[in-house]
Structures are given as structure tokens and as C-alpha cells.
């Protein structure tokens, strides 16, 4: 892969339905995800799901070792595979291993609510290089290592069990050039102009995965409060919220999507508006159903997006 310029091979690791349920929807997204985003009330620390998490991480580690060739650099990505670096290290002591934690790292007090905090940290510290999004996350991670493991730390470094792991902040971004090029295409400019002429107001746009960490209901409440406080803005500004459903096997996500009906603030009578279903075309991505604004409308909350 990629097909147009093959540079590496993709090897798939098949998981059973039970493994997907307990490893991914269970421990990863009912324990690590809410804990890392400070939603402690949503966490489910289940010992059986943890055991599946360990077993699946071992499968990924073993598959990596099987594919490894001398001199390879191994990159392990994200919170679903936090134990893999240590497992690989035990089998390949001299390998060069990197790991990136692709979500927030919480404060020490929150992280220590996880019953397996030591095991998770030890797993990650099997890597030579650990990446976080921000410098604050690096500091929180090092604090967790000091408190849970009694590890020594220095500027961007953790010393644990005779090894040294560097911890660095690497903020993520977007392909700016690609988006600028796309936005300047004539067909995109024509479609944008058509939308503006249809809505005939200022447009506020939110594009998010449908996730309780994104604050979508709160955003709608805030816009509702803004219209209450500034009635002169009614009919002059439209909030369009695109929300892509995800993780619907997890109860809290199903509840959030179900809340898009009568329970969400955009359904209040004060500034309610009808929702129109239509198709939108994004160049190169085909058409999908979404909900869009009515001319002069106040807000919209779509439950799918292209």
C-alpha cells in the first residue's frame, strides 16, 4: 500500500465478535476513552474486558514480531494498543519502538481511577519514544509514572526498569494545502455559493463525530441561549451541525444519538425549525444523506454526514 505507490504491506488481524465487543467497545471505549476525557461517570472498569484487552494486545504484538525484519522501526498507535510496546520489547529487546497516544492524557488523580494504571504505564514504557498531543499531556503522563510506578523522570524522559523512554509533544494538524486546493475548485466554490444563497444568513458550521466528548448538545444550548439574549440575531444567523454517528454498540453513544430526537435543545419550541433531508455531494466522496438548514433558519442538527 498505497495501491498507486506500493511501499508497505498491510496485514489484517481478524478479531472475533467477542473480542471486538470486550476489547474495542468494552475496555477501550467504556474505560480508557471516557477516563481520558474526564467523563469518570461514564467509565466501566470491567475485569473481564481488561483480560480481553490484554489478550488482543498480545495478538497484535505477536503478529508484529512475526512480520519484523532486522532494522525495522515499529510504530504502535493509540490507546487500544497501549500494552503492545512492552510485549514487543520482551520478544525483541533491541527493536526500535515508537508509540503515540492519540487522545488526551488526563491528570494523575483521574488516571489513577483506572484499576490497571500500573500495567498500562508499564506497557507504554516499552517504547523508546512516546508521543502525546500537547506539553500538558506529557507532564500529566510523567506525573502518572512518578506516582503510580515511582519512576524517575526528567525533561521529556522517563526512567523505568533500567530503560529510558523519551516523551514528546507532537500536535496533530491537517493537510492545509490539500484543503486549500479543494476549496478553490470551481465546483466547490459554486456549491458554496449555492448554499449561501439558499440560507441567506450568516452560517456557523460544526462538523464532529457524534460523541459525548464533543459537547454537541451543549453547543446547541449555547446557541439557543445566544438567540434568547440577542433576539435581533434571529433570522440572521444559522447554525449547521453535522454529526457523524459512531460506536453505536456502546450504550452512551446510542443514547446520545437517540437524544437527537425530542430531548435535544434544537427541538425546543422557542427557536425550533423544521429539518429537511437532502443529499450533499463532496467532490470525490459521493453523496450521502444529511440534514440541512432551511432558509433563514436558526439551527440544525444532522445525524449523518458526507
Compute the gyration radius: what is it?
A: 23 Å
Structural class: alpha/beta
Spatial strand order of the main sheet: 1-2-3-6-5-4
Strand content: 15-25%
Enumerate how many helices there are, as a single number: 10
| Terminus-to-terminus distance | 25 Å
Q: How do the helices and strands follow one another from N- to C-terminus?
A: HHEHEHHEHEEEHHEHEHEEE
Largest pleated sheet:
6 strands, mixed
Regarding quaternary structure, how should these chains be classified? Answer: single chain
Could you say which overall geometry the principal axes of the C-alpha atoms support?
Answer: globular
In helices, the fraction of residues equals 25-40%
- Enumerate the spans where pLDDT stays under 50 for 5 or more consecutive residues: 266-306
**How much is the average pLDDT?**
84
- Please tally the β strands and state the result: 11
How would you describe what is shown here?
There is one protein chain. With 306 residues, the chain is of the alpha/beta class. 39% of the residues lie in helices and 20% in strands. The protein contains 10 helices and 11 strands. The protein has helices at residues 17-36, 47-67, 84-91, 108-111, 117-124, 135-149, 176-183, 186-199, 216-229, 251-258; strands spanning 73-77, 96-100, 129-132, 152-154, 157-160, 163-169, 202-209, 237-244, 276-282, 286-292, 299-301. The strands form 3 sheets. A 6-stranded mixed β-sheet has the order 1-2-3-6-5-4, covered by helices on one side. Helix 1 (17-36) crosses helix 2, helix 2 (47-67) crosses helix 3 and helix 5 crosses helix 6 (135-149). The radius of gyration is 23 Å and the shape is globular. It starts with 16 loop residues before the first helix and ends in a 5-residue tail after the last strand.
